[in-house]
Structures are given as structure tokens and as C-alpha cells.
Specification:
Elements lengths: L10 E4 L2 E5 L6 E6 L4 E4 L5 H15 L5 E3 L5 H4 L9 E5 L2 H5 L2 H13 L4 H10 L5 E3 L2 E7 L2 E7 L9 E5 L5 E9 L15 H12 L4 E6 L5 H15 L4
Parallel strand pairs: 4-5, 5-6, 6-7, 11-12
Antiparallel strand pairs: 1-2, 2-3, 3-4, 8-9, 9-10, 10-11
Helix pairs in contact: 4-5, 6-7
Length: about 240
């Protein structure tokens, strides 16, 4: 029996491409369905959330999740990663230093708990967390079969030092932006942000997708190129960055 995106509360963005907005931190997870493959973009904030996402994505795709891309190493986007056992995991080069050391995982856990994640859930997720096996330093084309390819692009630094975008060609083209773009609130610049490079990262997003693409932010509703450009200009003014 075929299930629809709406049955699971997912939004269909384009053919075989969708996303859901997770409760708690309004974090976006994406799904791209290929020929016998499925790419999930970001894994949620806990093992339980990751397991639910994997179950739903597999049902929507009609087969197992085979690939996982992490847009950046913040807890609400990565702590469900261990629930995707067997999937090929991708991240921007250097993300392994954030997710692969004990000290870094302790900082990730502390941030998650301070933001309201249950301490036991944070303990379980960080203990099971392993860094991505595949590190994207420039651009990486993934062939998902069935005539579908996606482009993983290391467009940072910006929101963090390790920002990865996912371009899904088609009509329309879809760009998953991670937290380089936020719609439901002002973009958050934490201690790991690189403000001086953030506007340039948004310029790269716009170069990837173009004027007619749909841009999926890390938090909030899907936006257009004009929104991304306006946010770029706002960030440039906020951080005193000139072209």
C-alpha cells in the first residue's frame, strides 16, 4: 500500500523530494527518493527521533534509507544519526573533528541539554554518535539511481565551520540550506559561527540554485531566492561584511 507525504506530516516539495518540520526546535529533515535509494538530510535531535524519521522515510521511498547528509554539526540536526545504521553518511570536511572526539561530543551533549533535550536521550545519542564516513571538501555528486543525481556542496563556513548544502536538480530545483538560512526566526550565530564568511556562503547557495529554485531552510517555511538574498544582505549589515 502506497503512503502519501501528508499521512506522515511531510511536505512534498518536488517530485520525489520532501521535508518535515520536527517538533521542539522546528528543525527540518529532508528526503530525496532515488531508484532503489533514499537520501535523508539531517537526522533529528535524538535516537528516537532518528528512528522515527528513518521509518517514515523508508515507507515514503518504498525501500531502505541508503544515504544520510548532515548539513552542520548542531545537536538538533545530528543526534539521530546512529539510528541510520548501514546508511552512507556525508558531511562537510572537518565535521569529524566536531563529532568524532570525546570532548566535542561532551560539548554537543551539554548544548542539547541546555536547549531542553532530555539528559538521558542526550547521553544515549552522543554515546552512539559516529562522525560521517564521507567528507565533502568541494562538491560531491551522488548518483541515486533512476536518473536522479544530487549535488552535495561544502558552501561554508558561515553558520558553522562545516556547512553542507544539498542541491536536487529538477523542475523546480531544490536547495536544502541547513541553518545557513532560517525563516521562522532570525539566523542564529553561536560561538562556532563564522560571521565574516556567512554572506559569501549565501551567495554560493544562490549560485547553486539560481533564481527559480526553492530553498529549504534549516528552520521554517520553504523560501525563494529573493528571501535568501535579503537574508544575505541583512547578515552582511549585521556583521559589517562588504562585498
Amino acid at each position: 500500500m502506497t503512503v502519501t507525504w501528508e499521512e506522515f506530516g511531510w511536505e512534498r516539495v518536488a517530485g520525489g523530494v520532501g521535508r518535515c518540520r520536527l517538533p521542539g526546535w522546528d528543525c527540518t529533515t529532508g528526503l530525496v527518493v532515488g531508484g532503489g535509494t533514499a537520501l535523508v538530510i539531517d537526522s533529528g535531535s535524538s535516537l528516537a527521533e532518528g528512528a522515527l524519521l528513518r521509518t517514515q522515510a523508508s515507507a515514503l521511498a518504498g525501500h531502505a534509507v541508503t544515504h544520510l547528509a548532515l548539513t552542520h554539526p548542531h545537536f538538533d540536526h545530528v543526534l539521530g544519526t546512529a539510528a541510520f545504521e548501514g546508511a552512507e553518511v556525508y558531511g562537510a570536511v572537518g565535521i569529524e573533528t566536531v563529532l568524532g572526539t570525546r570532548h566535542a561530543r561532551e560539548e554537543l551533549r551539554a548544548d542539547a541539554v541546555s536547549q531542553g533535550l532530555d539528559a538521558q536521550a542526550a547521553d544515549e545519542a552522543t554515546a552512539a554518535l559516529v562522525p560521517p564516513r564521507h567528507h565533502v571538501s568541494g562538491e560531491w555528486t551522488l548518483d541515486l539511481g533512476g536518473g536522479r543525481q544530487v549535488l552535495l556542496a561544502n558552501v561554508g563556513p558561515g553558520h558553522t565551520a562545516h556547512d553542507l548544502a544539498v542541491l536536487v536538480p529538477g523542475s523546480p530545483e531544490v536547495v536544502f540550506c541547513g541553518d545557513l538560512v532560517e525563516e521562522s526566526g532570525e539566523p542564529q550565530a553561536g560561538p562556532d559561527a563564522v560571521p565574516s564568511h556567512w554572506p559569501a556562503a549565501l551567495d554560493r547557495l544562490l549560485d547553486l540554485g539560481g533564481e527559480d529554485a526553492l530553498y529549504v531552510p534549516g528552520h521554517g517555511a520553504v523560501v525563494d531566492a529573493a528571501f535568501v538574498r535579503a537574508q544575505r544582505d541583512t547578515l552582511a549589515a549585521r556583521f559589517g561584511v562588504s562585498r
